[in-house]
Amino acid sequence: MIKKIITGIILIAIVTGIILWSRASSKIHYNDEGTVGNSAGNLYNGGLFCEIDGIIYFSNYKDDGALYSMNSDCTDVQRLSGDKAASINADSHYIYYSRRNYDKENSSVNALDFYNSGLYRMSRADGTLAMLTESVNCVSLLYGNTLYYQHYDNENGIQLHRVDIDQKNAGRMSQDSLIPASVRDGVLYYSGVVFDHALHAMSLPAGIDNVISEDYCYLPIAMPDYLYYIAPHDGYSLCRRDYEGGAPETLVADFCFTYNITPDERYLFYQIDGGKDNRIVQLDLTTGISTTLIDGNFKQIHITSKFAFFYDFIESSVYAYDIESKVLSLFKPPVLEK
Q1: Burial of residue 68 (number of CB atoms within 10 Å: 0-12, 13-18, 19+)
Q2: Cis peptide leading into 224, omega within 30 of 0?
Q3: CA-based max dimension of the chain
Q4: CB 101: neighbour CB atoms within 10 A?
Q5: Any residues with CB less than 8 A from the CB of 138 and at least 6 apart, and which?
């Protein structure tokens, strides 16, 4: 009898533990209102690197874009998922990414096939995965507890949608194909695509939209001090403006098509295009001194706390530029199994 009672107690304890664990693992951890999942510059360049709490989450080009992590100094590399990941965002508890398995090398699957695409939420603690939407998507931005993303379907093309991190409040926000990347103080800054090319400011989460400039300000990055952008109407020069309506300032008069900026607004990294003397350049905004990092054609510039990463044009190599030591080297992460 005593053995049966003890066995019963043990079984009850095990079942109770399983129930409590299940409830704990399914509990959603919510963010503060102003949480931002990745920098605008990184998201414009594909969202292939994202740093939080000294950990970089990245898409490993050596492993067909699989989701990896490493320390901020590029040590302790780990494989988190075989999914081809892009538009990576992160907060204190989760990693969010766009699954692009239809775009894997030698893949024969269709982009619209179920589960080959979608936005996913992964627990940073144990790797538990949840699908937020199965739709094909492009750029996505975590702000607060909502992912704002470019939703694609055959009927409507690309439009702005949203979904909360707990899978609620999903739906369309705008019929424009705008890029949701740059947010400052609850306002999403973007250049129109479908209806105009004006500079817009959309308050989140309400979606109230205002035009703040008729000028075409491509890839606007709203930093604390200035709003940076590429000016197609001025030869794709790289410019900035303040938030009080002051005159724009040209920072780089050359033809630029992609760029990024460090969080302290000290360094601009940009690719000069145009056919001659193409190169990646670093501009020190405190001294005005520009330095060519390497000649050639490059893209997808990403900034972390210690490095500027960028891809060559055919995506066969990735370079890592140590911002402090000013050393440029090839980034060669290992290929691992989970």
Answers
A1: buried
A2: no
A3: 89
A4: 19
A5: 87, 98, 149, 150, 152, 158, 179
Q: Give the pTM.
A: 0.90
d(CA 58, CA 80): 10
Residue with tokens 């969080």: 263
Neighbours of 84 (CB within 10 A): 23
C-alpha 176: how far from chain center: 20
Predicted confidence (pLDDT) per residue in 47-63, tens digit: 999 999 999 999 999 99
β-sheet with 157-164: strand ranges across = 136-143, 146-153, 157-164, 171-174
pLDDT for position 63: 97
Q: List the beta bridge partners of residue 208.
A: 203
List the helix and strand counts (H, then E) for the chain. Answer: 2, 27
Strand partners, 128: none
Whether omega before 248 lies within 30 degrees of 0, making that bond cis, reads no
Strand order across the beta sheet in which 256-261 lies: 256-261, 267-272, 279-284, 290-295
What digits encode the pLDDT tens for the residues 87-142? 999 999 999 999 999 888 866 666 556 679 999 999 999 999 999 999 999 999 99
* Alpha carbon distance 266, 288 (integer Å): 10
- End-to-end Cα separation, the chain, in angstroms: 47
- Asked if residue 259 lies in contact with residue 270, where contact means CB atoms within 8 angstroms, the answer is yes
Helix, strand, or coil here: 134? coil
